[in-house]
Amino acid sequence: MTNLDFWFTKESLTDIASKYSDLKISWVEDEEGYKKAKEAWKELQKVRKEVTIKWKELRDEAIKTQKNVLALEKELLVIITTVEDNLKEQIKNIDQVKEMEKRKKMIPIMKEELKNIGIDVSDSELLMVPEKEFSNFVVKKKEEKLQKEQEEIDKKNREQQEQKDKRDNFRKQEMMRVFWEIKQPLLLLSEEEFSEKIKKWEEQKKEQEEKRIQEEADKKLALQKLHKKQAEEEEQKRLQKEESYRKFLKDNEWKFDKIVKEDWKVVLYKKVAEFII
Question: For residues 53 and 106, what is the distance between their CA atoms, to the nearest angstrom?
Fold first, then answer.
């Protein structure tokens, strides 16, 4: 019988495997070879089972140790993380209060900047906008404003198209009316002369309509260019004013308690002291 404690190493197992690796059963008549192979197979089975059992014990012991280590780690960390998390939460709350107070001071200038580009936003909405995100907020509001304006333009264009369709229908009806009124004189014309008159009349109407459409398009393009130029100038002024105002606030940071807009200027106030009488 094999002593597991004696050979339970990689080298000893390799020796056992090598001992039987060359065994061969030549054929059915090879009873001696068959007997040796069967004995070797049984011994190898036994060794394999013993190795499996031993390593299972070691695995179970390792898993138990791992669980104990993890439990101890968790127990030790709780001592620190309880205080750490409490302090973290307090710091977070104070930072939020400071940030809200800072944002409150910025609300008047934010509203003024938005008002200059025709955008009205509530104080509560602005209070949720971090200072670093205000530029993106303005861009988003501009896009929303432009989208709304575009929807209004599209609606106006649809209405104009409907009016044009009505005018076209009216012209067709008027054409038929005129045709029937002058039917008799036209009947005196030859087919070629009649076709020529109708063709000239249609060309005249087409030229008038094309001229009207081109004039409207020219007016619309000129108006768009004017609006674009004005918007670019206003945006440049707004950015310059915003930069100057931010520098003004930074230069006076923590020197004021509130901002008050008075007509064309912004005044910073700070409470110096109070006396209860």
Answer: 73
- Which tokens is 150 given? 């575009």
User: What distance in Å separates the CA atoms of residue 39 and residue 45, rounded to the nearest whole number?
Assistant: 10
* Helix (H) or strand (E) run with residue 259 in it: strand 258-262
SS (H, E, C) 153-221: HHHHHHHHHHHHHHHHHHHHHHHHHHHHHCHHHHHCCCHHHHHHHHHHHHHHHHHHHHHHHHHHHHHHH
Nearest-angstrom CA–CA distance, 246 and 113:
12
d(CA 259, CA 273): 18
Instruction: In whole angstroms, give the CA distance from residue 59 to residue 196.
Output: 106
- Average pLDDT per 10 consecutive residues for the chain, totaling 277 residues: 54 86 85 88 90 87 92 92 91 87 81 80 81 81 84 87 82 66 56 72 81 87 86 84 79 71 70 67
Angle 225-134-126 from CA coordinates, rounded to 5°: 110
Please work out, in degrees rounded to the nearest 5, the angle formed at the alpha carbon of residue 72 by the alpha carbons of 66 and 75: 140
C-alpha span between 77 and 89 (Å, rounded):
17
Q: What is the largest CA-CA distance in the chain?
A: 135
CA pair distance 50, 259, nearest whole angstrom: 84
Coil/strand/helix, residue 236 = helix
User: CB neighbours of 118 closer than 8 A, spacing ≥ 6?
Assistant: 145
Tally of CB atoms within 10 A around 109: 19
Q: Of 75, 163, 149, which Cα lies nearest the Cα of 119? A: 149
Confirm whether pTM is higher than 0.90: no
Single-letter residue type at 73 = E
> How far apart are the C-alpha atoms of 221 and 200, rounded to whole Å?
31
